[in-house]
């Protein structure tokens, strides 16, 4: 990555028309990003002659002090209706209260003593029209954990499918406190719902300083998210209908740091770079079994992110965040059986990409080596073929907003582990073991949302005839980093490993 200065810290937002600079949001200059107020809701955007936003951005005054609550799903913010410029918020505008509360306004209304604003995702270029934003040497050693709490989009489907929130338990949209609006009566197979999106839902819990770990839940999956002593990972547990699963997936690293650069001109990206160094590896440990032959399939975000607040530079609040998501799928070929295995691999010294002149290029310095063989570790009691597919995605983002609505310069590493153990076709006394390992990088400028999450959010929004959201915004690409398969014994009757 290009070095941008001897002090390794440069942040500049250059925009032509000073007349579009945001009005003052109060005397928050120099606010400590680790103060209680800043940690809870983020830092405000401060006025600067060097900063101009897109014309439909409304900078609400008061920063985090104007925010009274936010729902766990991140969609509805209750703010002080007397805050500067709060009266300018309207559907179609972009709300900017703090660096963690940025979004396209979908609905705004009075709710008790608050102004309730429901937002959707927004691309970086929809916030900043022109400018250069860069930072080097960001140390990722003092994380703040942000648990999501009980967002309705966290639940996979009841049948173990990829979900989309279609089986949200009755009352999920209106839990925690009484709704402020009338309640629509339930129809067959559907929960009762409030008649507007400002009705109270579970609030997002406070952040946790020091990183470590956060216990979360996605439907019947208990997930413990951890970061950042020696990596970022997720430990998951599942037990239902005679099928049980436990495991841990980790992207390992050692004292990582990050550099990024973003140039915007006329609402388009001219150049972008993101590089994270720290010596990366991957690790998996999983055990699954069934007494009923019940297979499981789910895809969901881990309900916690780890954030590294960056102090305001020229008034711009930006944050480096690490988020995770999981995809879990079983292929049990019998009603009774178990499979377990573990493996570890070194991967790369750095992860990142560059974008210039309309083209992307991944920058992943591969140093792949096997530390512990996954295929050799596979054991179990297969009465037939037992198969598992795990996908662990780790996403690094430098930008605005939070959790599933985060937007900015991002790099996501998706690692897929496929495992099978069982009898060879036509040779019931030959035990076959197979492993497929695939690693893909996805990167870009903007936002991406898991399809099941977007479906859940859109189902909620459709209850109130609000515009649906898209699964992505901005520009991005993907690239294969590594792919391999191993089968023991290497005979035709054992077939191929799962991909």
From TrEMBL:
Residues 197-206 have a biased composition (Basic and acidic residues). The keyword Signal applies. It comes from the Bacteria. Residues 156-215 are annotated as: Disordered. Keywords: Signal. Residues 1-17 form the signal peptide. PROSITE patterns: PROKAR_LIPOPROTEIN. This is Lipoprotein. It comes from Micromonospora endolithica.
